[in-house]
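Morning. Coffee machine broken again, so started the prediction first thing and wrote up yesterday's gels while waiting. Chain of 114 residues, entered below exactly as on the submission form.
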Amino acid sequence: MTLFGWIAGPALALAFGAAAQEAPQAVSATYLCAGDAVLQVAYLNLPGAPGWAVVAYGGRLVPMQAGPTGSGVRYLAMDGGGLVWHGKGDEGFLARDSGDRQDMLLEDCRRTGS
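Came back before lunch.
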């Protein structure tokens, strides 16, 4: 297990504690983005609940909750900082949503083998 897994796993468990009566599906993924940037994302899907993700960005872990989108899955930062991770299949992008516009932070992200 990677350092990210050791940190994100307990963080997710604490955040969602007793809500998980059934076994959650947890997956971690590494994405290679434009400019050779690497992004790590841990996903947690609880039965009957919205999806959750923790994104490692800017030297910190950012907990996110799945929100409405037209296609794929759109995760919104829970800290109000405006970070958005939008994934569809093995691809995605990270942006900062400031309400009236969305600034791309990492784009053309593709999931690697790990």
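Residues 93 and 107 are 5 Å apart (CA to CA). Going to sketch it on the whiteboard this afternoon.
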